[in-house]
Design goal:
By secondary structure, this protein is mainly α. It has helices spanning 2-7, 55-71, 85-91, 93-108; strands at residues 23-26, 35-38, 43-44. It is built from 4 helices and 3 strands. It has a 3-stranded antiparallel sheet with strand order 1-2-3, with no helix packed on it. A hairpin with an 8-residue loop joins β1 and β2. The longest helix has 17 residues, at 55-71. The protein is flat.
Amino acid sequence: MKSLWREGLSSAEGLQLGKAPCVSVNWTLGDGQLEVVNTATGRRRDLGTPSRLCKRVLFARWSRLHCKLLLGQACDGGEDRRLMYSEAKMAARPYQAVKQQWVRSLQDAGLGTWVKKPPEQEHFLS
């Protein structure tokens, strides 16, 4: 890890033109260290666990915040209250309206059709 920083991110010596890097580095306020993610798997290089930026983790954080804002307190996480990611996404009307506009704009500009992911990829709980 230290060698990555010693070389410097803007150093031309550390770059291989035409080849994407095999790692992604991220950090967030309050975390004690950087997270280094294998770009091929999306998992942390040190532990092999999913990144803190993966869809499931971000959705879990959003769900806790959403519940807290709705109820004014932390939710207990009972299974009966939990939404699936796909349900929450469909219920977000402003998001859906903008997405529809985006898809239409792509088609109107002759840039093709938006490719949808298989629906089962968005069927998970927070």
